[in-house]
Amino acid sequence: MNDWAAQVLQGDRRALARVLTWVENAAAEGRAAWQALFPHAGRAHIVGVTGPPGAGKSTLVAALVQHWRQHHPQQRVAVLAVDPSSPYTGGALLGDRVRLTPRLAQDPAVFFRSMASRGAVGGLAQATEQAVQVLDAAGYNPIFVETVGAGQAEVDIMRLAHTVLVVQAPGLGDDIQAIKAGMLEIAHILVVNKADRPDAQRTRRILEEMLRLGPRRAAAWQPPVLLTVATTGQGVPQVAQAIVAHRQHLQRSGAWQQHEARRLQAALERALRDALWRRWRARVEPGRYDAVLQALARRELTPDQAAAQLLDDAPTLPTPPPRGDAGSP
Amino acid sequence: MNDWAAQVLQGDRRALARVLTWVENAAAEGRAAWQALFPHAGRAHIVGVTGPPGAGKSTLVAALVQHWRQHHPQQRVAVLAVDPSSPYTGGALLGDRVRLTPRLAQDPAVFFRSMASRGAVGGLAQATEQAVQVLDAAGYNPIFVETVGAGQAEVDIMRLAHTVLVVQAPGLGDDIQAIKAGMLEIAHILVVNKADRPDAQRTRRILEEMLRLGPRRAAAWQPPVLLTVATTGQGVPQVAQAIVAHRQHLQRSGAWQQHEARRLQAALERALRDALWRRWRARVEPGRYDAVLQALARRELTPDQAAAQLLDDAPTLPTPPPRGDAGSP
Question: ipTM score of the complex?
Answer without folding.
Answer: 0.73
